[in-house]
Amino acid sequence: MYSLIDGKATAATIKAEIAERVEEIVKNGGRRPHLVAILVGHDGGSETYVKNKVLACEACGFKSTLIRYEDDITEEELLKKVDELNHDDSVDGFIVQLPLPKHIDEQRINEAIDWKKDVDGFTPVNVGRMSLGLPSFVSATPKGILELLLRYNIPTSGKKCVILGRSNIVGKPMAQLMMQKQWGDSTVVVCHSHSPQLKEETRSADIIIAAIGRPDFVTADMVKPGATVIDVGTTRVPDASRKNGFRLNGDVKFDEVAPLCGFITPVPGGVGPMTICMLMTNTLQAYEQFAK
Ligand code: GUN
After folding, report:
1. What is the value of pTM for the model shown?
2. Residue 252's Cα: distance from chain center in Å?
3. What proportion of the chain, given as a percentage, has pLDDT over 90?
4. Is 197 a known active-site residue?
5. Who is most buried in 27, 234, 241, 269, counting CB within 10 A?
6. What does the alpha-carbon distance between residue 288 and residue 292 come to, in Å, rounded to a whole number?
7. Domain range for residue 45?
8. Over the stretch 221-265, which tens digit does the pLDDT of each residue have?
9. Residue 108: which pLDDT band, with cuts at 50, 70 and 90?
10. Which residue among the candidates 6, 97, 172, 285 is catalytic per the annotation?
11. Known active-site residue 181
């Protein structure tokens, strides 16, 4: 019988731990950690993510500020705001919610963010520092997955970990972290859409991290009995029975894969809630390391 990794409950526990720490800070005369989110335009997914980030700040006792722009904002205007936030001592961390409108160069915005306030962990400095094993802000999804593996006492050292997907936000940093001695200490294989031996690789994996963005991609014949399966997929699939007209579908065919597993994350309620929670731990880290 498999064990379900409950990301929702774990995230709630961590947020309560953060809130406790914040109350201690405030009791000792400190100010509350402050996260700023910039949201450009009205993308449905981004609106939901940002709303949930603001709610998570409230749960943690943080101050939060939402800065909204219409999608005709220029790149220069956005860069000016980033520069302003970089120099604002009342702000511990900020995020620019992605995607941005097509006329704005996301990478140029990303590179303008001071790494000490980059609580998303997306800037080249943070990615580089993380890859070198230096103190850094680790991006939220891989950090959340590591936290789940740790809190569920799932051994990673010396294990074979297969990562499906090579995105900058999940696959690449996940591979780095699982490989590094002070984090996963695993043997890591990264597979993607052009990997010919993909099934052979996953079949011998102790841990599979699926972040390929293809619903139900991982099937029972790809999984070794007893493996841990982490599902990062959150594809919106039309579903007329739902109020909002869609459901979130993972990258793993849960019903047939779960009975084989030692541990598995559900979608929703697995990795998703941990992602926003790790943004909160990064904001607290920014406050504790760099607040003036
Ligand atoms: N868009 C989707 N996920 C994220 C995230 O983690 N951070 C930011 N800034 N934008 C996103």
Report:
1. 0.96
2. 18
3. 98
4. no
5. 234
6. 10
7. 29-115
8. 999 999 999 999 999 999 999 999 999 999 999 999 999 999 999
9. very high
10. 97
11. no
Clarify whether residues 198 and 95 are in a common domain: no
Distance between CA atoms of residues 146 and 107, nearest Å:
26
> Looking up tokens 């943080």, which residue turns up?
62
- If DSSP codes are grouped into helix, strand and coil, which group holds residue 127? helix
Same domain, 165 and 259: yes
Domain count, the chain: 2
Q: Give burial (CB, 10 Å; 0-12/13-18/19+) of 135.
A: exposed
Nearest CA to ligand 1 atom 2: 98
Which residue, among 58, 263, 95, 268, has the nearest Cα to 169 in the 3D structure?
95
Catalytic residue among 53, 143, 159, 172: 53
Calculate what percentage of the chain has a pLDDT beyond 70.
100
Whose C-alpha lies nearest to ligand 1, atom 3? Answer: 98
* DSSP secondary structure code for residue 252 in this structure: B
**Atom of ligand 1 minimally distant from the CA of 95:** 9
Residues 99 and 210 in one domain: no
Q: Check if 120 is active-site.
A: yes
Residues 268 and 160 reside in one and the same domain: yes
Compute, in angstroms, the gap from residue 13 CA to the centroid of ligand 1. Answer: 23
CA–centroid distance, 27 to ligand 1, in Å, is 32
Bridging pattern class, strands 160-164 and 235-238: unpaired
**Ligand 1 center from residue 275 Cα (angstroms):** 10
CB 122 within 8 A of CB 97: no
CATH number (domain holding residue 147) = 3.40.50.720
Q: Do 158 and 108 share a structural domain? A: no
- How many residues are given for the chain? 292
Q: Residue of the nearest CA to atom 9 in ligand 1?
A: 97
